[in-house]
Design goal:
This protein is α+β, with helices and mostly antiparallel strands. Among the domains are: 184 residues, Immunoglobulin-like (Sandwich), CATH 2.60.40.150; 98 residues, Immunoglobulin-like; 109 residues, Glutaredoxin (3-Layer(aba) Sandwich), CATH 3.40.30. It is 40% helix and 24% strand. It has 20 helices and 27 strands. The chain has a five-stranded antiparallel beta sheet with strand order 1-2-4-10-7, with helices on one face. Helix 13 runs antiparallel to helix 14. The chain is elongated and about 110 Å long. The N terminus is likely disordered.
Length: 704
């Protein structure tokens, strides 16, 4: 079968014969200027850098191609359409012509196509090497060059040169200095870095191993592949930094031309919009399937053209929707209670508490994001919700939830903004309580990934630090927005019931969602750290509660000092204990009809032409658990999987797992849940929404 590119080349050859547009003439000279050809739509000049050559040496000649204004010529890999220049040398024995060196090309979009070439004059440098035994006193040169110039239509051009250069002592021509200096300035630099070019069925990744001090601040990186079969030229390329360099990711046509070279030109654009071009000779690797657990796994280009404003809007709306996720409900009930209690406050105090609540969320988000960026910079594969993969953090969160619940139950008083309801609260106390509620809302919200939130976070974590903080600030503001808006609403305040003794019972009832949250977190902790660590955690919690009781039972300094020591000791025991026990297996993930996710297992199933449904979850992700019960583990969905012969895989991200982190990043996600449906015979998945219903799953299966 003739490919479109082969047909294009055959058409150009035929066009050359039919058009007969050569514009060529012979110019026999002995000077540095070997002649200029005035073709129909361009001109070409051949110049030697030396006025005299010598045996055993290499001299350079330059061919300058100048298209007519508005027209362009082409690089050695011309992209989707065009033709590279063709050199035909006739040289005496003992003299060889090397490959031409091309200046850095430009991208030239033509409708849906992308071509590589030059709109301005371009100089191609060719080395001529003399054997040491060359004895003639002159070098006869005969050269025929064919090249193509295009505007909307394309016109083949041809030029012929014949002449000679003296041979004796090597003599540099000062008159050619500026010509060759300018030509070499347009060449890419030789890269000092090593690089890999890994080619998958539908995508390619160039990985460059370089330190941040070597490449500076990168705004954009683009790779011009010298060989074919590397990329769809018109598709956007996406770059991302990594601890040991950076990636450039490219889309390629599955089943298209075979990749044949790792060479190319890498153009790096710095923050000040300065371009630097490097010649790359990467090691070419051809893989059957993207390796989700390796550093060369390639993310699809879903975020390549993701504008910042859209990511910011998604973050804001995602934070807003996050208020409806089940993991946030316990804290929202506390906040709702505080609004009832707010009837005894002034409008100004309500607004202050609204902003204090917002500040608590924002500060918590910034701390978590800062820690995430620091850990990622060390090369560790982590994502959103990473702190809940640490048993020490989960144990500390269990302690906080238990103390808040006991306070609501009336055992002791922790000011969280709801105690003392029905009486005037000091503004300072109310603001402190609102801030703490914001912190608590963030801590329990991080296991969740709301719709629109996932792509925004996935985009942010591939950007510079200022963009990361901007996106997460908008996410934090979205989470805080409903209650911040309500704090400014006098009409809502008038609708709230009047405070009274009944509120004490409501406050006590609100303790039970907190107890349930603590129980869920204790379950997660047990899965992560094992039964022995859970026993140690429970003992530490009881000791901490005893310390709180001592604080309230004794008013003297000695008693309070002892209480503080006990509470600090208990908290320290939770945070610094080694958690060396064996994690507990989840019965769901060990079920015989569910295959634990690994890169190798997925590759084997796809190689066997299986349809695969892979879902990525964590025990601390409540959204994941709700989806599993509502949509995945229903009789209807399980029967559909069995009827269609769909193999189910589960990736458990309860504890840190580099393979799962990589596949999340590959599909533009920074956290769970992620649901992927791999149709039979395809290595790229259909991505399902973060919130599932049985109908969504059934429709996705019906459409493959």
């Amino acid at each position: 079968m003739i490919t479109m590119r082969e047909l294009s080349k055959k058409t150009l050859t035929l066009a050359t014969v039919l058009l007969g547009i050569t514009g060529a003439f012979s110019n026999a000279v002995t000077a540095t200027d070997l002649g200029t050809v005035e073709a129909s739509h361009s001109k070409a000049t051949l110049i030697s850098e030396y006025s005299s050559a010598a045996a055993g040496e290499t001299i350079w000649v330059g061919l300058e191609l100048t298209p007519r204004e508005g027209w362009h010529s082409y690089w050695k890999n011309y992209g989707d359409s065009g033709a590279a220049p063709i050199f035909e040398w006739v040289l005496p024995e003992g003299v060889t012509a090397g490959d031409a060196l091309y200046p850095t090309p430009h991208r030239m979009p033509i409708g849906p196509l992308m071509n590589y070439g030059y709109e301005a004059p371009s100089t191609l440098l060719v080395p001529l090497t003399f054997d040491s035994g060359y004895t003639a006193n002159a070098l006869p040169i005969e050269l025929i060059v064919e090249w193509l110039v295009c505007e909307i239509e394309c016109v083949p051009q041809e030029g012929t040169w014949s002449g000679s250069l003296p041979v004796g002592d090597l003599s540099y021509d000062e008159g050619a200095r500026s010509f060759f200096t300018d030509a070499r300035d347009q060449l890419p630099e030789m890269a000092i870095w090593t690089a890999d070019l890994t080619v998958y069925p539908a995508q390619s990744r160039l990985k460059v191993y370089a330190g941040a001090d070597e490449i500076g601040t990168v705004k954009e990186a683009y790779f011009y592949p010298e060989g074919e079969g590397i990329t769809e030229y018109a598709a956007a390329q996406q770059w991302a930094s990594s601890p040991d360099g950076f990636f450039v990711d490219m889309v390629r046509t599955e089943g298209g031309l075979e990749a044949n070279s790792g060479k190319g030109i890498l153009v790096i654009t710095s923050e000040d919009d300065q371009d630097r071009a490097y010649e790359i000779d990467a090691e070419l690797k051809v893989e059957a399937l993207p390796a989700a657990g390796s550093s060369n796994a390639t993310p699809p280009q879903v975020n390549a053209d993701f504008p910042l404003w859209q990511a910011g809007l998604f973050a804001l709306l995602g934070g807003l929707v996050l208020n409806l996720m089940p993991c946030v409900f316990p804290v929202l009930s506390l906040k709702a209670f505080s609004f009832i209690a707010a009837n005894s406050k002034t409008a100004g105090e309500r607004k202050q508490e609204g902003w204090a609540y917002t500040a608590g969320i924002w500060v918590s988000f910034m701390i978590i994001v800062s820690a995430l960026l620091i850990i990622k910079s060390s090369g560790t594969a982590i994502g959103w919700g990473f702190q809940l993969q640490e048993p020490a953090f989960v144990g500390a969160l269990v302690l906080i939830m238990v103390l808040v619940a006991l306070s609501l139950s009336g055992m002791f008083n922790i000011q969280v903004g709801v105690e003392g309801a029905g009486q005037q609260l000091a503004s300072q106390d109310g603001n402190k309580g609102a801030f703490f509620q914001g912190v608590l809302a963030t801590l329990v919200a991080t296991p969740c990934t709301a719709p629109l939130m996932a792509p925004a976070i996935g985009f942010a974590l591939t950007q510079s630090a200022p963009v990361v903080f901007l996106i997460f600030s908008l996410l934090a503001f979205g989470l805080a927005l409903p209650f911040l808006a309500l704090s400014y609403s006098p009409a809502l305040a008038r609708l709230m019931p009047r405070p009274g003794p009944w509120m004490e019972k409501l406050k006590e009832a609100l303790a039970f969602p907190m107890y349930l949250t603590a129980a869920w977190l204790l379950y997660v902790f047990t899965l992560q750290a094992g039964a022995t660590a859970t026993l140690a955690l429970l003992v530490a919690i009881i000791i901490a509660i005893f310390g709180v009781w001592l604080w309230q039972a004794f008013s003297g300094r000695v008693g309070k000092a002892i209480a503080v020591i006990i509470m600090i000791s208990a908290a320290s025991a939770i945070i610094i204990q080694p958690f060396g026990g064996s994690p507990v297996s989840n019965p769901v993930e060990t079920a015989s009809d569910i295959t634990p996710y690994t890169e190798e297992a997925l590759a084997e199933l796809l190689a066997d032409d299986e349809t695969v449904f892979a879902y990525f979850s964590a025990e601390w992700c409540i959204t994941c658990k709700v989806n599993e019960q509502v949509a995945l583990f229903t009789d209807e969905t399980q029967a559909l999987f069995a009827q269609k012969g769909i193999r189910v895989m589960k990736g458990d991200w309860t504890n840190r797992n580099a393979e799962i982190a990589e596949i999340l990043a590959r599909y533009g996600r920074a956290g769970v849940p992620l649901y992927l449906l791999f149709p039979k015979g395809q290595s790229e998945a259909i991505v399902l929404p973060e919130i599932l219903t049985p109908g969504i799953v059934a429709d996705a299966i019906a459409n493959i």
